[in-house]
C-alpha cells in the first residue's frame, strides 16, 4: 500500500465506522431518527472536508513566491546548479 493510499483508507474507514455503524447503536428514543441522520451527515461532511483538504495538498495550485536572491540561496544550499 502506497504512502498516498494509507491515509485515504484509514480516514475512510474511520468516518465509515462513524457514519455506518454508530447509527445502529443509537438507543430507541423519540429522537432516534434525528440522531442517526446527524451522525451520518456529520461523518459524510467531515470525510468530504478532509478529502478536499488532503487532495488540495497533493497538487497545490499556488506555490510560494520567492524573489531571485532567495531562489539562488536555496539552489546553492540544496546543491543545485545555478543557471543564470
TrEMBL record:
GO MF term (any one): proton-transporting ATPase activity, rotational mechanism
Keywords: Hydrogen ion transport, Ion transport, Membrane, Transmembrane, Transmembrane helix, Transport
UniProt topology in membrane: Multi-pass membrane protein
Principal subcellular localization: membrane
Keyword Mitochondrion among record annotations: no
Keyword Iron: no
Subcellular location as annotated: Endomembrane system; Membrane
Role: Subunit of the V0 complex of vacuolar(H+)-ATPase (V-ATPase), a multisubunit enzyme composed of a peripheral complex (V1) that hydrolyzes ATP and a membrane integral complex (V0) that translocates protons. V-ATPase is responsible for acidifying and maintaining the pH of intracellular compartments and in some cell types, is targeted to the plasma membrane, where it is responsible for acidifying the extracellular environment.
Recorded family membership: Belongs to the V-ATPase e1/e2 subunit family.
Assembly, per entry: V-ATPase is a heteromultimeric enzyme made up of two complexes: the ATP-hydrolytic V1 complex and the proton translocation V0 complex.
Protein name in the entry: V-type proton ATPase subunit
Species for this entry: Asbolus verrucosus
Lineage, top ranks: Eukaryota, Metazoa, Ecdysozoa, Arthropoda, Hexapoda
Amino acid at each position: 500500500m502506497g504512502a498516498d493510499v494509507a491515509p485515504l483508507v484509514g480516514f475512510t474507514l474511520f468516518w465509515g465506522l462513524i457514519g455506518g455503524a454508530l447509527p445502529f447503536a443509537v438507543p430507541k428514543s423519540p429522537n432516534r431518527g434525528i440522531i442517526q441522520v446527524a451522525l451520518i451527515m456529520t461523518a459524510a461532511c467531515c470525510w468530504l472536508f478532509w478529502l478536499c483538504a488532503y487532495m488540495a495538498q497533493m497538487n497545490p495550485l499556488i506555490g510560494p513566491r520567492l524573489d531571485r536572491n532567495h531562489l539562488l540561496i536555496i539552489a546553492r544550499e540544496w546543491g543545485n546548479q545555478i543557471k543564470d
